[in-house]
Amino acid sequence: MAKYYANLANALVHHVAWGWSDAVTAAGRLLDEALRRGGDPPEVP
Questions:
Q1: Which domain of life is it from (predicted)?
Q2: Taking the model in full, what pTM does it have?
């Protein structure tokens, strides 16, 4: 049973890490696009 929980925790950590990575990539892409247009980065609500 302990192995099951260890695997579950490991999967959760990887899922959160990938989700964070995707969010950072998306934000970076938006910022890059805004800077390329020469304007200010869009306001984040």
A1: Bacteria
A2: 0.40
Q: How do residues 1-45 score in pLDDT, each as one tens digit?
A: 788 888 888 888 877 777 778 888 888 888 888 888 876 656 666
Cβ pair 42, 29 in contact under 8 A:
no
For residue 37, give the amino acid letter: R
Which amino acid is located at 16 in the chain? V
Q: d(Cα 5, Cα 19) in Å, to the nearest integer?
A: 21
